[in-house]
Amino acid sequence: MTDQSEANPKLNRLKAICGEIYDLNTAAALLEWDQQVNMPPAAGQDRAMQIARLNLLAHQIETSTEYGELLEEMTSLRHQMPPESDDFCLLRVLQRNYLRALRIPDEYVEEFSRETGTAFNIWEKARAADDFAMFRPALERIFNLRRQYSEFFAPHDHIYDPLLEDFEPGLKTAEVLRIFAILREEQTALLQEIMAKTPPDSQILAGNFAADKQWLLTKESASLIGFDWKRGRLDKSTHPFTTTINLNDVRITTHIHENNLISALYSTIHECGHAIYEQGIAPELNRSPLGTGASLAIHESQSRLWENIVGRSRDFLTTFYPRIQTAFPETFNTVSLENFYRAINLVCPSLIRTESDEMTYNLHIMLRLELEIEVLEKRIAVSDLPDAWRSKMQNYLGITPNNDVDGVLQDVHWATGAIGYFPTYALGNLISAQIWQTASRDLPDLSQQLRNGNTVALRNWLHEKLYRHGSKFYPSELVQKITGSPIDPKPYLDYLKNKYREIYN
Amino acid sequence: MTDQSEANPKLNRLKAICGEIYDLNTAAALLEWDQQVNMPPAAGQDRAMQIARLNLLAHQIETSTEYGELLEEMTSLRHQMPPESDDFCLLRVLQRNYLRALRIPDEYVEEFSRETGTAFNIWEKARAADDFAMFRPALERIFNLRRQYSEFFAPHDHIYDPLLEDFEPGLKTAEVLRIFAILREEQTALLQEIMAKTPPDSQILAGNFAADKQWLLTKESASLIGFDWKRGRLDKSTHPFTTTINLNDVRITTHIHENNLISALYSTIHECGHAIYEQGIAPELNRSPLGTGASLAIHESQSRLWENIVGRSRDFLTTFYPRIQTAFPETFNTVSLENFYRAINLVCPSLIRTESDEMTYNLHIMLRLELEIEVLEKRIAVSDLPDAWRSKMQNYLGITPNNDVDGVLQDVHWATGAIGYFPTYALGNLISAQIWQTASRDLPDLSQQLRNGNTVALRNWLHEKLYRHGSKFYPSELVQKITGSPIDPKPYLDYLKNKYREIYN
Q1: ipTM
Q2: Residue A324: CA count within 13 A, CB half-sphere
Q3: Assign residue A470 a region: left if phi > 0, alpha if psi is -120 to 50, beta otherwise?
Q4: What is the distance between the alpha carbons of residues B2 and B16, in angstroms, rounded to a whole number?
Q5: Domains along the sequence of chain B with CATH
Q6: pLDDT (tens digit, 9 = 90+) per residue, A441-489?
Q7: For A374-404, how does the pLDDT look when each residue is reduced to its tens digit (9 = 90+)?
Q8: Hey, is the C-beta of B18 within 8 angstroms of any chain A C-beta?
Q9: Which residues of B touch A43 (CB under 8 A)?
């Protein structure tokens, strides 16, 4: 980021402070990555304290007088800067974050970080033991802390707004509920229509897939998507995730189950979508608050675009499926590409969100959003969550988990305090279809390229339109810039209708 | 650490600040560990900046007015505390470190940390390419920075004193040179005596040792020494090392070469010796500056005790060697324990310090100490190091490396700025023999226990005498407390004479 800084030592100083905050935050990110990938079991409590401390130090710098004064002075000069320059965008983001950070007391930051660090370890144990009661007290503390957090931003239109704002700047709960109402109606109707048809045969996907061969194939799929191995790595963890230590060190994880190849492959492609977005951010934004994806929904639009719209398409499979056949000939040599394509696009209500198909995924999200709001508003207690989960699952998807591992304990999010996060998954689905629609218009031979295993043109287009900007622009601005429209559920619903009516005749 | 703190909020505050420093330092330790074990290749420069920042922040806190005032006030109360209490010892260490840190400007800390981070990456590349010229500019900067560092402590008796003091509190260069003079004379004479005899047959150790089987055997050897897997992990890196993220997360690394089993095994046992020392520190010292080993020489005494005095003894091999035979029957089924024992204790001047035997190890150290002092005193230039290395190697060991990979580029230490570190290796050898002599007196059935594969009694004895104290006591105090004498080369020389005259008849 060069724009104004040579001329302005105060702006340089401000950026240096951002660098300090960046280093503390990314050190914490590495501690967290390590916690999920490498950390020995007895170190959980210590690690939680270490992460909490780094978060607190970052928060203290971010709310310091020096930083506040520099920021105020520089913000007053912002109107002199070119509106889309790095510096202009940086100051806008810093100002927004600063005003938010000021509302949050140091003690809260430390307590939240420590509680979530501890809760993560408890969640892991509770999940292993299928024992929600073990996790309940920690989860109650987290919901209390999140309620407290919302109150720092009072008055608000909705208790959920300040939580959502952390993940999706500028988005209001009312807007999410409006979009979800449309989705709920149309997607539920479509699901019913589809479920009445004969499903494709997914038994052809059954087999025993040796972990070491799966591992090689997940690496191959990451390479095919365009993951830059010089600037990232792939590991294993219970719950796949992506983390950025810096723009030259973007890490993804996957999980491998010997009885399920599809899970490892598509989890990897999903995380790869996140990673190549981060790896594609302009190098001059590295180590600055702009050097990360614009929001979770924008991020998810990229993971879902590569995982589903590309990864589960006939075009992409034209190249990818033969590699799968080569790795596991005993299972797939007798299975045609067309049958494989239909099988991996089976619509089947399932208990686990991360394994769910495109048709039902958003319904999982609605369930979580409703539960989060109900607990926050104290309409139900944390202790009611397992039952409420079961009843909503039955309601939306017609199935009920037999245990809490497949129910309320399945996701890591609440354990890490990430309440307000789930809606971004569904919004990501919608945005992915909007962006895909635009890309397909701009790149007339995209379909042919993907059939040839060539992902470069699409990646370059995304790089130009989206990746390189990091978080210079707000999510709503980006969606508008790229697609010419605000977030809109119609392209996604159209995509679902076209794809699944064809597969299900 | 409970002693006084309930009664004294200022002492609590001081400890809380120590916690901040600890968290920054250990976050940096994890970033460094990750750099050597996991980091993608393009991230070196970014990582160096991140580590530099954390080191700088820690240094700023450690030299802050609040910290200084609290420390001064608490130090004035120290005489009221029981002399060996945790608080008494903590204040003593803090005071010493504070007075040292005050002399070092922030800019120096940042520059040193950044330069060494960068130099590490350059060293790795230079080593891979056997290209000392590539490394030379970085090494010159490091020696310049170290000279500058010594000057912060002027006046000093010796330019090397302030560097040595960082690793070995209280030890003077003059004392090291005095001890080394004795060693040089006696150890060189002993080496000549031994080299005139017929060597044991070490060809019996040759073979091809599959990496995965070696990996399992290194883990088994770590378990046998008593490594606590719940509170640590083992990984692979170019140069084996131990790092402590906290007392519940102590990590060791090893390296595996398919043509050399002994290297992996004894590197692992060596690092294990470091690790069980750290894992044995009293839990109440965790996350405090006392929660680490007393000094590098004391640390090395433990790694060398387990690696050599225990690990390469007939007693230990009575249990351990059958496991080696089970893992690699094709190589060892026809080799007797006695022949294996003699082979792994072959005296053979070698180019690589870490692979060198007990008889020649200290000579490698003398070489490095002399070169460090000569460069610091500008009696030779950094560009002269490769030649100077070759000539001293010929002088001490009668061999000359054909390339710099086996010469001046072999060790990571200078790349990380650790000048002043090497003498602690030789001192560690001496102390290991002093401690072993005492342990053998206190534990009359030690020999029998080791023959039974029982390492608990020795570990418990070490825990009681040494491990649990962390760095409550200065190295010289500890050696005196445990052995009743100051650092003394005689027990080590006696150990060498007894052991090698017997092996070599």
Answers
A1: 0.87
A2: 26
A3: left
A4: 13
A5: 5-158 (no CATH), 173-503 (1.10.1370.30)
A6: 999 999 999 999 999 999 999 999 999 999 999 999 999 999 999 999 9
A7: 999 999 999 999 999 999 999 899 999 999 9
A8: no
A9: 231, 245-246, 248-249
